[in-house]
Amino acid sequence: MIGSNKKGQRLRDVTGKCKDSLARQLLHTKRDWQLWLLMLLPLAYILIFYYWPMYGVQIAFRQYSPRLGITGSEWVGLKWFEKFFTNYSFTEVLLNTLTLSLYSIVVGFPLPIMFALILNALKNDRFRRTAQTITYIPYFLSVTVLVAIINLIFSPTSGLYGSIYRMLGGNGYPYDFRSMSGAFRHIYVWSGVWQSLGWNTIIYTAALSSVSQELHDAAMIDGASRWQRIFCVDLPAILPTVIIMLILTAGSILGVGFEKAYLLQTPLNLDTSEVISTYVYKAGMGKASDFSYGTAVGLFNSIVNLAFLVVVNWTSKKASDDEVSLF
Question: pTM for this structure?
Fold first, then answer.
């Protein structure tokens, strides 16, 4: 009887705390109603442009006809997925996408971290701010402008590359690197590094700014050099941020940018430049206009990205004793 009374009292206490917490939340909501009102616009944007289009995913399982509409079209199950998996270009497109994405991650992920550590180690504030500004600027160039710059540099007829070749005594025009299958991946990845290096350092620079100066002072008292302080103080301090960014990057392992890949494509480099995003565009919006097939390929791409995100997140939780993860 006494035990039942204690359980009942604990239940009443918990219920009372929940009611008090809910009352406080409602009070704060009423007090800050302007802030909640400001959230309606981004919330509507997410619902309209990210969640509502999910209704159309069922096109991947139907013989879609614009005349019949989505729900009126015939249900065909996994027909379009089977068509993609048995297509002669499936292996080539998938390998091209994985190779280009992994190449971009291996090169583009650690470089901003290294650059942020170098900038943080600089003692000249004016030089550091100048370097940050110069490296930020390319990020604000559109993909079309970036590809135009690449064409101006590597054009064998009127570009910088062709002019230097003739200046050094070459006859005629040099070979066009833009049409080489082996050069496409290097041009794609390193142009992306040049464009986004400075911008990607922002979050790491912000994380480094929160590192206590007392840790550096203690390390200097112990005789640590500047490099030792970078690897033993700065790098461990931003490691949780690095892991979170790696998880987010892994979530787009097959999300190779469509615009730059499509603009850099030529008939001579298709064997390395044809990735899933360009393949979906050509399948769904090209001459055949097979919307169901293009949707199925795009859905496959999203599922693989989700799988990579979950696996990397699970791995990070196990490696960091459940301290760093997204969910």
Answer: 0.77
Residue in 309, 179, 207 with CA at minimum distance from that of residue 254: 309
Contact criterion met (CB below 8 Å) for 100 and 185:
yes
Which residues is 75 bridged to in the sheet? 62
Tell whether the torsion through CA atoms of 4, 8, 13 and 15 is positive or negative: positive
Which residues does residue 63 pair with via DSSP β-bridges, in sequence order?
Answer: 74
62, β-bridge pairs: 75
d(CA 318, CA 187): 36
Query: How far is it, in rounded angstroms, from Cα 42 to Cα 48?
Result: 10
Helices (H), 222-290: 226-229, 235-250, 258-264, 270-273, 276-285
Euclidean distance between CA atoms 244 and 108, whole angstroms: 15
Please tell me the distance from the alpha carbon of residue 93 to that of residue 283, in angstroms, as a whole number.
13
What DSSP element (H or E) covers 73? strand 69-75
Give alpha helix (H) positions in 32-171: 33-38, 40-46, 79-85, 90-108, 110-121, 125-136, 143-154, 160-167
List pLDDT tens digits, range 300-311: 888 888 888 788
Looking at residues 101-128, what average pLDDT do you find? 88
CB 260 within 8 A of CB 78: no
CB-count exposure of residue 2 (10 Å: 0-12, 13-18, 19+): exposed
Whether the predicted pLDDT of 11 surpasses 50: no
Name residues whose C-beta falls within 8 Å of residue 103's C-beta, 6 or more positions apart in sequence. Answer: 185, 189
